[in-house]
């Protein structure tokens, strides 16, 4: 979204603040804004103008690496994987683009606090995978479909209904890698897999750049920094939003979780200007992203429907028989109700989320069970550490089983890249 440049006299007018969009006046967003922050996080028009400029900023280091891979795929890709897994010093005569990309992983920012990363990992590990899966499916994914400009990238991958379950499970798996103990250390699974996803984004960007029907004036660059915000904010927000399901964090833990997601964003290639350092900054960034990008349309509805319809398959209750049909209905509506309650009725109506079902009556029971379990694990001496270790082991075991059952392959977004390439070839053939 573009806005007119304010006069110099009003550029720093602290009273010229944005008016909230309806999505921030209801559901979970309203609760978060009223309880956790207040009006102080409401950005000014000048801040919105500065934020909008990032629609034309991407990730030059990753783009240069992908350009080198396209010129000499086997050699550069091999060097990249070698350096990623074992360090740049193990690569003979590395390509400059590989060295530059790996340097972004090796150069640790001064602000990184490893004790906070460890604390965040222990806190998040107490949350069972069932809660993470529910919040990712019902909140993070629908909330990331708010922008038609972002959705345009996703829709170019094609066959969303078929791939929805795999994309959700792979996203949960990636999130678990990042938040695992040591996950964001240099050779941790979170760091390495985030780097690979960053390269996939650059491949998608390169593919879309080659077609003629992407409107830079209205959409900005494909997979730009604003798109990163729209997709990263819900994932980071879910890590904190699970408090609404009874997984309570102390102030120190909340601060550590924000710090962890700042480092994840840094590793993903998010510009320093859009990396948040506090809960207030996260909420201000949500304000800006909502104001700039929220404009749900048919693509938002289609993607949300695909995510919710994937729920029975994710939980393995999509088979034949009366029992499976009942469980499928229950799982679907439990997640759809969570989406409606969290995102608000206005947005839920706009994207076709069903009205509340009787499954919503289970939420108080779910909250109470989780809260009792979580508080007991923390209050017992040494219990928090044991709960974190046990929770991490259980989560990794459960996600491995789901991925095996669904035959999920890492980085299924590679299929989106291939689809864009095929479309590019078709367009070139027509114009020849």
From TrEMBL:
Residues 1-21, 412-432 are annotated as: Disordered. Residues 10-21 have a biased composition (Basic and acidic residues). Residues 146-369 form the ER-bound oxygenase mpaB/mpaB'/Rubber oxygenase catalytic domain. Signal peptide: none annotated. Transmembrane segments: none annotated. Pfam families: MPAB_Lcp_cat. This is ER-bound oxygenase mpaB/mpaB'/Rubber oxygenase catalytic domain-containing protein.
């Amino acid at each position: 979204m573009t806005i007119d440049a304010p006069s110099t006299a009003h550029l720093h007018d602290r009273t010229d603040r944005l008016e909230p969009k309806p999505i921030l006046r209801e559901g979970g967003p309203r609760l978060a804004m009223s309880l956790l922050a207040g009006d102080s996080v409401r950005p000014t028009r000048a801040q919105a103008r500065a934020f909008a400029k990032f629609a034309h900023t991407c990730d030059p280091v990753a783009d240069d690496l992908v350009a080198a891979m396209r010129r000499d795929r086997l050699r550069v890709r091999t060097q990249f994987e070698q350096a990623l897994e074992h360090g740049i010093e193990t690569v003979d005569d590395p390509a400059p683009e590989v060295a530059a990309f790996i340097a972004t992983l090796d150069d640790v920012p001064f602000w990184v606090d490893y004790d906070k990363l460890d604390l965040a990992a222990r806190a998040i590990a107490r949350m069972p995978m069932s809660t993470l899966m529910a919040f990712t499916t019902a909140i993070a994914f629908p909330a990331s479909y708010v922008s038609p400009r972002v959705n345009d990238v996703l829709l170019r991958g094609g066959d969303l209904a078929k791939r929805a379950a795999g994309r959700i499970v792979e996203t949960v798996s990636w999130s678990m890698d990042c938040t695992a103990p040591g996950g964001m250390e240099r050779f941790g699974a979170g760091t390495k897999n985030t780097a690979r996803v960053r390269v996939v984004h650059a491949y998608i960007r390169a593919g879309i750049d080659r077609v003629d029907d992407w409107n830079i004036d209205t959409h900005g660059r494909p997979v730009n920094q604003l798109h990163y915000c729209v997709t990263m904010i819900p994932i980071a927000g879910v890590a904190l939003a699970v408090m609404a399901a009874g997984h309570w964090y102390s102030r120190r833990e909340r601060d550590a979780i924000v710090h962890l997601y700042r480092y994840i964003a840094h590793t993903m290639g998010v510009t320093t200007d859009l990396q948040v350092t506090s809960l207030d900054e996260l909420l201000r960034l949500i304000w800006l992203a909502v104001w700039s990008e929220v404009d749900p349309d048919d693509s938002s509805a289609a993607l949300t429907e695909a995510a919710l319809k994937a729920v029975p398959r994710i939980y393995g209750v999509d088979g034949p028989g009366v029992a499976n049909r009942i469980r499928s209905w229950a799982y679907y509506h439990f997640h759809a109700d969570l989406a409606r309650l969290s995102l608000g009725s206005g947005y839920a109506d706009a994207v076709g989320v069903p009205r509340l079902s009787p499954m919503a009556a289970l939420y108080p029971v779910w909250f109470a069970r989780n809260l009792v379990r979580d508080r007991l694990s923390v209050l017992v001496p040494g219990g928090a550490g044991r709960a974190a270790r046990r929770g991490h082991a259980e989560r990794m075991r459960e996600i491995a089983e789901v991925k095996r059952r669904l035959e999920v392959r890492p980085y299924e977004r590679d299929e989106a890249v291939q689809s864009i390439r095929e479309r590019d070839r078709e367009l070139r053939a027509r114009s020849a």
